[in-house]
Backbone:
């Protein structure tokens, strides 16, 4: 029996080995190649002026919130509405404040009555003390009672001022004339202290916040005139440098520069991206690798571009980008000069797909 088991086992092993020894056919990729257009990277050293990216924002804007918690009774405005200074924007339920104000008013009435009685007693004892009909101790007691009564009235009035100040936060009003840009609350929702309810800004005056690298910030001068290209509408607007940050602690090595834009009939809006050109000559030996922004692939916070491999397949390469110059962006790392990259494709590109170059 033991011998038969050994023979059967050997037969199974040989069968498996024979199956594994068969020639494996390679998998052939028969998918059609995608037709693409490519361009060659060129190192540009002819840009004479410093250009950086920026973003338009209103010169005067505000996020309005409240210091009290309560349900929103009514929102009086919508996004895009023009409002005047002092106009009510949001009404918050203030029934608890009304009850507190009634209590404070009652306290003021009581304190005022006590003060009148204390003043009468004080005047009476002054006459008695002048006629030597009251002792110094009695006069001192009346004076103390009179001073405490005056203090109670003053405390009640100050409490009323505090309640009135809280009423100002139950009706959110416009601090200046402008346009409502965002509404974060609806009627019936809960308003919490410090949480923005309404955002507004002035509609005419705009400024640009630009990010300047540390290698160039020393060349930027306050008051200098600059050209601001608004990318979405392809318009150039004049501006003037008004503020220059002296710290890049919280901006990743980039220094904030504020530029006031001249008033213009051009339809510009907050949030539009710009390219700011400063009248600062770049170093002659500085070269840049520039590629069109349309060719950039965005995946979350990563930016990349498809290049061509030696076997004519698309290879996605991640890049580190720098400043923007019109419709081109500077490549700091990830792509070298004289390399080819894909600018358009007649199909969906992915890593490793076969391509044919037009």
Residues:
């Amino acid at each position: 029996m033991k011998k038969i088991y050994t023979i059967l086992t050997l037969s199974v092993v040989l069968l498996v080995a024979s199956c594994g020894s068969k020639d494996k056919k390679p998998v052939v990729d028969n998918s059609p190649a995608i037709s693409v257009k490519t361009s060659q990277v060129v190192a540009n050293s002819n840009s004479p002026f410093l250009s950086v990216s920026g973003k338009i924002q209103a010169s005067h804007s505000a996020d309005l919130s409240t210091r009290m918690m309560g349900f929103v009774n009514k929102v009086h405005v919508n996004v895009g509405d023009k409002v005047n200074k002092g106009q009510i924007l949001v009404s918050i339920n203030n029934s608890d404040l009304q009850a507190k104000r009634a209590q404070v008013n009652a306290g003021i009435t009581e304190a005022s009555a006590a003060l009148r009685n204390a003043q009468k007693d004080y005047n009476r004892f002054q006459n008695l003390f002048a006629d030597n009909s009251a002792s110094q101790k009695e006069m001192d007691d009346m004076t103390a009672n009179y001073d405490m009564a005056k203090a109670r009235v003053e405390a009640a009035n100050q409490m009323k001022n505090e309640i009135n100040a809280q009423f100002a936060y139950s009706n959110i009003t416009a601090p200046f004339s402008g346009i409502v840009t965002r509404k974060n609350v609806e009627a019936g929702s809960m308003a919490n202290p410090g949480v923005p309810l309404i955002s507004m800004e002035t509609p005419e005056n705009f400024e640009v916040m630009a990010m300047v690298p540390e290698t160039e910030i020393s060349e930027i001068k306050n008051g200098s005139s600059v050209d601001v290209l608004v990318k979405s509408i392809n318009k150039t607007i004049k501006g003037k440098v008004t503020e220059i940050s002296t710290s890049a602690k919280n901006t990743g090595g980039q220094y904030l520069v504020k530029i006031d834009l001249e008033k213009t009939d051009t339809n510009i809006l907050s949030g539009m991206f710009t390219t700011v050109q400063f009248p600062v000559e770049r170093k002659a030996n500085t070269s840049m690798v520039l590629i069109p922004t349309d060719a950039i692939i965005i995946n979350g916070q990563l930016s990349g571009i498809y290049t061509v491999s030696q076997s004519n397949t698309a290879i996605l390469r991640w890049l580190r980008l720098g400043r923007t110059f019109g419709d081109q962006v500077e490549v700091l790392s990830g792509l070298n000069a004289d390399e080819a990259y894909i600018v358009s494709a007649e199909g969906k590109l992915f890593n490793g797909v076969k391509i044919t170059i037009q």
Notes: DSSP finds three helices and 23 strands in the chain.
